[in-house]
Write a structure and sequence with these properties.
The structure holds 2 protein chains of 2 kinds. By secondary structure, chain A is α/β, with parallel strands linked by helices. Chain A has helices spanning 6-18, 39-53, 70-78, 89-97, 112-121, 134-147, 169-181, 203-226, 242-245, 258-261, 264-269, 345-351, 377-383, and strands spanning 34-38, 59-63, 83-86, 102-108, 126-131, 151-156, 185-192, 233-236, 253-254, 277-287, 290-293, 305-307, 314-317, 322-325, 337-342, 354-359, 362-368. Chain A folds into 2 domains: 8-38 and 273-368, D-serine dehydratase-like domain (Lyase, Ornithine Decarboxylase, Chain A, domain 1), CATH 2.40.37; 101-256, TIM Barrel (Alpha-Beta Barrel), CATH 3.20.20. In chain A, helix 4 packs parallel to helix 5, helix 5 crosses helix 6 (134-147) and helix 7 packs across helix 8. In chain B, strands 1, 10, 11, 14, 15, 16, 17, 18 and 19 form a 9-stranded mixed beta sheet that branches. In chain B, strands 2-3-4-5-6-7-8-9 form an 8-stranded parallel barrel, surrounded by 6 helices. In chain B, helix 8 links the parallel strand 7 and strand 8 (233-236). Classes of the chains: A alpha/beta, B alpha/beta.
């Protein structure tokens, strides 16, 4: 792993400067809402995954879309990850500048600026993307040729999630041939996130679904190999299926991400991983039958959350408020701090610009969330040397 | 209205530097997903609201939480709004630095840092804050005294929304009297946003609920005034109830915001305002039975408001049924009769825009389909992002 580039160190310095008054303080003294990251829990999660992968035939590629943190990504690599998975090319640029050389955009990259960004990134890192369509192959090839780089390409296989991806060898084979013949591209294999399994909470059913999905994925890989197009990489799995998928013959790497920071949804799938990220909020109004906090759906995100340590029923989440039913027996009062356990953490992280990093309940550092938001054309300018 | 502070012009310069290469180009050439605001539609919405003000008893206080744009806020002030309304103290700081002389934080602050920020901001503008708790009022008083300023206070009344707010005339009187007696605070009146009415899609039922809410609100004000607590300000209303509430002779100001930039959700209730805020997105995958777009719930947020579906949709393909919204993808059912293909760039209805606005850092400002400017979104996200230090330093 390289040292982090100025893009990362400057962002870190900036947020440390903005929130320096929080350093050394316990959570009770913080301005709310705040995004909390508990280091002990994070390390335990990373250790657990490292231990679980020690005897697995597949390697670990850590997905970063969940946490958007260059610092957590580096810790994932220190805990055995061979590289990272990203949802956008902008995330891949950030992670490459964080010092990680193997970056895979596990998504279709479409549009002239995004493909140019990926091609330029491939000059400084092992950059890969997935495709499910000949037009994407041609666009990526043209961009790589223009940039003088080589982009790794994997075919996206739909194993039942019904999002992007091809479903048959008949579709995959001509695509693989097209990639292997396209200048500037390197055909590397298949990717097939079995995300539909992560919507199934019954463990037996979920793992059976995952095996069925892997049967399809590895079957297509075997067909391509037989046709003279071997798949160096066969990538799959999320936090809900990593145990099964990492041991499925023919799968070379897994791509989970939520295991590091976790949330309610993923704790329902694999409770061995602990809550490392929560949202700190304040009770700002105490009514006879309810409490109102200062963290609503603009903070916690669309999937809402529950209060840590309090069994209170959700009444409603508004933009800037969450409301929980609480009668007089609940000793919460205006000004009290509460922690919200997000049902789906990526939405909350998407809104924040920084984590308050905790050791033993005290803030020890502030880490930037990068990249923020959906459009980051300036990262393309950065690659082009624009600023 | 004062000039823009450097914090606004610097942010404007920054986003123009980041995205300014789009200026002069078609909106379909921008990097997607992009948040687009149509300046002609925005102006038409503001002009329509302004044209209705003479017939309303109440004045207009433009809410900013839904657009988070200093530029839109200034246009609201240029189109009849006497002041602005914010959901957080950070929004209030931005809007004062955008030139507003009057700002209401229609929310409880409670946190000591936020109280101090509001008290310091009162050095620069007339700042008013909602309160529903005597202890919170006392702490605001201490913050104002420490800053050497005066904060205007509105006692928040729960008119049926069941969020914050006192829930009886007696409790309102108790808090109002406490505010009257506290140094550094000015008891200005009551705040009573009837937000529950905006969750009622049926026009007649919404009107009934609005009338009941405002009757109760006025009754609470009568109780205070009869007991020696004058309420010169009665502030209420959202976009879905503004013309009803604004016609109530007792209501003095309206705190609506969505009327300016609008979205599909509010358009269902108030179609006289048009949708100025949309997105431009790209088809990144085309399967036999579906299309997949390059934005998902991380970008447009929830597809529901309360229990009401405000489904994001593709312009020109509104009939396509959503299959699933993931973090970075929106998938719609689309058979061979649908001509969308990989690489197509299309306009997109966002459903409920405040969530998307909260995620982006800028608007692509469009006229006649061409990008003419880039406007910053400020403040972004739940943290203060340096606004605390700014207000501590003073202007």
């Amino acid at each position: 792993m390289h040292d982090p580039a100025p893009l990362i160190t400057e962002a870190h310095e900036r947020v440390r400067g903005l929130y320096r008054s929080a350093l050394g303080r316990p959570t009770d003294e913080l301005t709310t809402p705040a995004l909390l990251l508990d280091m002990a829990t994070l390390r335990a999660n990373l250790d657990l995954m490292a231990a679980g992968m020690r005897d697995a035939p597949a390697t670990l590629r850590a997905h970063v879309k969940v946490h958007k943190s260059p610092h957590i990504a580096r810790m994932q690599v220190e805990h055995g990850a061979i590289g990272v998975g990203c949802a956008t090319v902008w995330e891949a640029i950030v992670m490459a500048r964080a010092g990680i050389s193997d970056v895979f955009v596990i998504n279709e990259v479409v549009g002239p600026e995004k493909t140019r960004a990926l091609a330029l990134l491939a000059r400084e890192a092992d950059a890969k993307a997935s495709v499910d369509d000949a037009a994407q192959v041609d666009e990526l090839s043209a961009a790589a040729v223009a940039a003088g780089s080589t982009i790794g390409v994997l075919i996206d296989v739909d194993e039942g999630m019904h999002r992007c991806g091809v479903t048959t060898t008949a579709e995959a084979l001509p695509l693989a041939q097209r990639i292997s013949e396209a200048p500037g591209l390197r055909f590397q294999g298949l990717t097939g996130y079995e995300g539909h399994c992560s919507l199934e909470f019954d463990e037996t059913k979920r793992h059976a679904m995952a095996r069925e999905a892997m049967s399809l994925l590895t079957g297509i890989a075997a067909d391509l190999a037989a046709a003279g197009l071997p798949c160096q990489i066969v990538s799959a799995a999320g936090t809900g299926t990593w145990g099964t998928t990492s041991r499925y013959p023919g799968v070379t790497e897994i791509q989970p991400g939520s295991y590091a920071t976790m949330d309610g949804h993923h704790r329902g799938l694999d409770p061995r991983f602990g809550w490392a990220v929560t949202v700190l909020a304040s009770v700002i109004s105490r009514r006879p039958d309810r409490i109102v906090t200062d963290a609503g759906s603009k903070t916690v995100g669309a999937s809402h959350g529950v209060l840590k340590g309090w069994e209170l029923e959700k009444y409603r989440f508004d933009e800037e408020h969450s409301i929980f039913l609480a009668d007089a027996s609940v000793p919460l009062t205006t000004g009290d701090k509460v922690e919200i356990l997000c049902n789906y953490t990526p939405f909350a992280i998407g809104y924040f610009e920084a984590y308050h990093v905790l050791e033993d309940g005290k803030v020890v550092d502030i880490w930037p969330v990068m990249p923020r938001g959906p459009e980051s054309r300036w990262l393309l300018d950065l690659l082009e040397g624009g600023h | 209205m004062r000039d823009l502070d450097p914090i606004i012009t610097d942010a404007h310069d920054r986003v123009r530097r980041h995205y300014g290469s789009a200026i002069g180009h078609s909106k379909y050439e921008v990097v997607t997903p992009a948040l687009v605001i149509d300046r002609d539609i925005l102006r038409a919405n503001l002009e329509y609201m302004q044209s209705r003000l003479p017939e309303l008893h109440a004045r207009l206080r433009g809410h900013v939480k839904n657009h988070k744009s200093p530029h839109v806020a200034r246009m609201q002030l240029e189109h009849g709004a006497f002041g602005l309304c914010a959901a957080t103290v950070w929004e209030a700081i931005v809007m004062v630095r955008a030139g507003a002389d009057e700002v209401l934080i229609a929310n409880q602050l409670v946190n000591p840092v936020k109280r101090r920020a509001a008290a310091l901001l009162a050095r620069e503008a007339n700042v008013t804050v909602n309160v529903d708790d005597v202890d919170d009022a006392a702490a605001l008083s201490a913050a104002a005294v420490a800053a050497g300023t005066t904060l205007g206070i509105l006692v928040e009344v729960d008119t049926g929304m069941h969020r914050a707010g006192v829930d009886s005339p007696e409790e309102a009187l108790k808090v109002g009297r406490a505010v009257q007696a506290l140094p550094g605070l000015r008891m200005d009146g009551l705040s009573g946003y009837e937000g529950h009415c905006s969750l009622e899609m049926d026009h007649d039922k919404r009107h009934e609920k609005q009338a009941a809410a405002m009757q109760y609100f006025v009754d609470v004000a009568d109780h205070l005034e009869a007991n020696g607590v004058p309420c010169p300000i009665l502030s209420a209303a959202g976009t879905a109830t503004a013309f009803w509430t604004g016609s109530n002779p007792r209501i003095t100001e309206l705190q609506l915001g969505s009327y300016a930039a609008m979205d599909d959700y509010h358009f269902l209730m108030e179609p006289r305002f048009k949708k100025a805020t949309t997105a431009v997105v790209t088809v990144i995958s085309r399967r036999n039975d579906r299309v997949v777009l390059d934005l998902g719930k991380k970008t447009f947020g929830s597809a529901e408001v309360g229990s009401i579906a405000a489904h994001p949709r593709i312009f020109g393909h509104e009939a396509l049924k959503p299959y699933r919204f993931d973090e970075e993808h929106a998938t719609y059912e689309a058979d061979a009769t649908c001509d969308l293909k990989v690489g197509d760039v299309v306009d997109f209805h966002l459903g409920y825009t405040p969530f998307a606005v909260n995620y982006f850092d800028a608007y692509h400002v469009v006229e006649d389909g061409t990008v003419v400017d880039i406007w910053p979104i400020m403040p972004r996200g739940p943290l203060h992002g340096g606004l605390l230090q700014l207000v501590e330093a003073g202007s």
